[in-house]
Design a protein that fits this description.
Number of domains: 2
Shape: globular
CATH class of the largest domain: Alpha Beta
Largest sheet: 7 strands, mixed
Bound molecules: nicotinamide-adenine-dinucleotide
Distance between the termini: 66 Å
CATH topology of the largest domain: Aldehyde Dehydrogenase, Chain A, domain 1
CATH architecture of the largest domain: 3-Layer(aba) Sandwich
Number of helices: 16
Low-confidence stretches: none
Length: 481
């Protein structure tokens, strides 16, 4: 049992309020510890520490700032297994999935180590006779990020490595449901010698978010979470005139063409639908099978789903973990009920699935619907659990039309052996992250990450060159001597 503290100005401090949230392991029910529900005073203290550190930190040469990140990368590699196990214990995903997510987190630290070149400006001589023009990138001050429960180690790493590498200082507000992995990474950042006040951590929920939004000392904010909160954060931050990028929820469609390599398609799509118990913003949700692909795909998907082994992700042989909490399980089950009431056919029902060894775990077995229409609740809303639907269209045009009916546009994939169909799909489809024979189209650290429509509010996306743009101002200097 661990009682967490905030990390402000290089020290671990108790929150101003005495309110805490108890946390348990979602697979076993074992008590993990308590996280503080901090308030306005804690945010004020973190902003003051970050502002005080900023003036010195921005003067540290980028190459020296990068060296702190090299050191941190080394420490994260050393603690790799411990970090992955912490993710599994608090979030429920399997150890293999947790390892993958920690690796993706580290890759962002690695990418930010390239800041001396990533941050360079540009120059043009003689914009008029004898006049030169250049732009340099400068940091803007204090940034903050608010992150979700589904990737406790990885998603925070989409932001703070770039923010501090570019010379800003930072406050992280991780999900109150999974605070242990981000805390462990901040401990490692402390060990790497990142100076006091450069990177701060304030635990909590809604109150901390509202205090960060309203605080005049914060220049910009990144958010990742559900669409209603993403939209709220975007609108509120806009009111205060701050920079904002808000990544929201998803309802991802996967198209299977009749010429797809069925073995690969089924294995990949099953992983996309049920991996991380469906709690990925890139998870497939609706499989759109075209023409003759429908019958064979549906049967083989059902068989792959039945082969999954539910359990505690730290135990060998487990291929699917629980959902994150009892409350979230209720929400997922209510969607299954809504699907049934709306007239969809339940081909595989995971509601009663139990894991004998762990009766207190929040397990939901893989669940598959057929006959889901786009205007049904389960056809249009994000479920964020291991609940998939299979639907039938005649051809690619109809498939793309179905994708475009969704209010979300985070990710989509096509499975085909036709270059023409793949090209047509990637060219026409209005979704931001596209997989061609890939079930989870996750851009790596050096590419932009984020959707459009109801899945993203803002313009500059997470990581890649976009994050350098987000965290810096381009200052233009025009000179004549
Ligand atoms: P959530 O919106 O409930 O919470 C996200 C963060 O917002 C948390 O830190 C939480 O404390 C805070 N928050 C929650 N309610 C709030 C409110 N009313 N006011 C202010 N702050 C609030 O999301 P979640 O359940 O933690 O995460 C799952 C969601 O995140 C899914 O919708 C998923 O698709 C999305 N997600 C999106 C991406 C992406 O790249 N687009 C990546 C990961 C997760």
């Amino acid at each position: 049992m661990k009682t967490l503290r905030n990390y402000i100005g290089g020290e671990w401090v108790a929150p101003s309020s005495a309110e805490y949230l108890d946390l348990t392991n979602p697979a076993t029910g074992e008590q993990l510890g308590k996280v503080p529900l901090s308030g306005v005073r804690d945010v004020d203290a973190a902003v003051a520490a970050a502002q005080a550190a900023y003036l010195k930190w921005r003067e540290v040469p980028p190459v020296v700032r990068a060296r702190y990140l090299f050191k941190l990368k080394f420490l994260m590699e050393e603690q790799f297994e411990d970090l992955a196990a912490t993710v599994t214990r608090e979030n429920g995903k399997t150890l293999a999935e947790a390892r993958g997510s920690v690796r993706r987190g580290i890759e962002n630290v690695e990418h930010a180590c390239g800041i001396p070149t990533l941050m360079m400006g540009k120059t043009l001589e003689d914009v008029a006779a004898g006049i030169d023009c250049e732009y340099v990138r400068q940091p803007l001050g204090v940034f903050a990020a608010i992150t979700p429960f589904n990737f406790p180690a990885m998603v925070p790493c989409w932001f703070w490595p770039y923010a501090i590498a570019t010379g800003n200082t930072f406050i992280l507000k991780p999900s109150e449901q999974v605070p242990f992995s981000p805390t462990r990474i901040i401990e490692l950042a402390h060990e790497a010698g990142i100076p006091a006040g450069v990177l701060n951590l304030v635990h909590g929920a809604k109150d901390v978010v509202n205090a960060l939004l309203a605080h005049p000392g914060i220049s910009g904010l990144s958010f990742v979470g559900s669409s209603p909160v993403a939209k709220y954060v975007y609108q509120e931050d806009g009111k205060y005139g701050k920079r904002v990028q808000a990544l929201g929820g998803a309802k991802n469609h996967v198209i299977v063409m009749p010429d797809a390599d069925m073995d690969r398609a089924v294995a990949n799509i099953s992983e996309s639908l049920f991996g991380c118990a469906g709690q990925r913003c890139l998870a497939g949700s609706v499989v759109v099978a075209a023409g003759k692909a429908y019958e064979p795909f549906r049967e083989r998907l059902l068989s792959a789903a039945k082969d999954l082994r539910l359990g505690y992700g730290l135990e060998p042989g487990v291929t699917m973990g629980p959902v994150v909490s009892a409350k979230h399980k209720e929400k997922v089950l209510s969607y299954v009920e809504a699907g049934r009431k709306d007239g969809a056919t339940l081909l595989l029902d995971g509601r009663a699935t139990k894991v004998e060894k762990h009766p207190r775990g929040h397990f939901v077995g893989p669940t598959v619907f057929d006959g889901v229409q786009p205007d049904m609740t389960i056809g249009k809303e994000e479920i964020f659990g291991p609940v998939a639907s299979v639907t039938h269209v005649s051809n690619l045009d109809e498939g793309i039309e179905l994708v475009h009916r969704s209010g979300f546009a985070n990710a989509t994939s096509i499975f085909t052996q036709s270059g023409k169909a793949a090209r047509e799909f990637r060219y026409r489809v209005g979704v931001s992250m596209i997989g061609v024979n890939i079930g989870v189209a996750a851009p790596m650290a050096f590419f932009p990450f984020g959707g459009t429509k109801g899945s993203f509010f803002g313009d500059l996306k997470a990581h890649g060159q976009d994050s350098i743009e987000f965290y810096t101002d381009k200052k233009v200097v025009i000179s004549r001597w």
